[in-house]
Design a protein that fits this description.
- This protein is of the alpha/beta class.
- It has one domain (3-100): Rossmann fold (3-Layer(aba) Sandwich).
- It contains three helices and four strands.
- Strands 3-2-1-4 form a four-stranded parallel beta sheet, with helices on both faces.
- The two termini are 26 Å apart.
- This is NAD-dependent epimerase/dehydratase family protein.
Length: 106
């Protein structure tokens, strides 16, 4: 099957532990697009990465416009794995912004 014939799957948080594993598992049957931050770590090479800031609605809108331009309107699935974690135990507003607050898009 040609890469362009494969259904598209979007994975947010594609550079994380779970996201990277999902990308590696799905890439043979799907065109995997990672929506992720621009700083390291980066998603596995099996996914194209569209960089965005999940806490910024304008950035989300631009990323989704890029996704639509490159891949069209037919997305087989969106797997939302983006999350914030911090092992310090201290409160951090990024936790609510990334993990709790609703971001429209997928």
């Amino acid at each position: 099957m040609e890469a362009s014939d494969k259904p598209v799957v979007v994975v947010t948080g594609s550079s994380g532990y779970l996201g990277a594993a999902v990308v590696k598992r799905l890439h043979e049957k799907y065109r995997v697009v990672g929506l992720d931050r621009s700083s390291p770590p980066h998603p596995p090479h099996q996914a194209e990465c569209i960089c965005f800031d999940i806490t910024d609605q304008g950035s989300v809108d631009k990323a989704l416009a890029r996704l639509r331009l490159a891949y069209g309107d037919r997305i087989a699935a969106c797997i939302h794995l983006a999350a914030f974690f911090d092992l310090s135990g201290e409160d951090d507003p990024a936790y609510d912004a990334v993990t709790v607050e609703e971001v429209s898009g997928c």
